[in-house]
Amino acid sequence: MNKSYLLLYSSHFGTSDEVRDWVDSIDIITDWRIQLPQCIFLISESSAQKIFDELTALSGENGTLLIVEYSKNSQGLLCDDSWHLLEHKKRKTDSK
To answer: Where do the structural domains in the chain lie, given as residue ranges?
Structure first.
């Protein structure tokens, strides 16, 4: 079953481009989206620990990062596409 995660990281962990490229290359991450600086929304069937292991195998353990599973007990100002991804664990599809 897919889970939604928030990956938050410091600039010492990696640049936005580096982190995006690492995330994109990890097969266990099935989808992702960026809306906030130094934060990526992730979709995966794997545990936060497994994502951490895969990510730090590419990046090393520099800087700081946090991978946390999204819960319905959350609130914020995000666009509809980001909320949809977090809540439904898939991207919105056009209803044409």
So the answer is: 3-88
How far apart CA 42 and CA 26 sit, in angstroms, is 11
Are the CB atoms for 62 and 77 separated by under 8 Å?
Answer: no
Domain with residues 3-88, CATH architecture: 2-Layer Sandwich (3.30)
Q: Classify residue 30 as exposed, middle or buried by CB count within 10 Å of its CB (0-12, 13-18, 19+).
A: middle
The model's pTM is 0.92
Here the tokens at position 78 are 């995000």
Contacts of residue 31, defined as CB under 8 A and 6 or more positions apart, other chains included, come to: 42, 43, 85, 90, 91
Model pLDDT for residues 38-73, shown as the tens digit of each residue: 999 999 999 999 999 999 999 988 899 999 999 999
Quote the CA–CA distance of 65 and 43 in Å, as a whole number.
Answer: 17
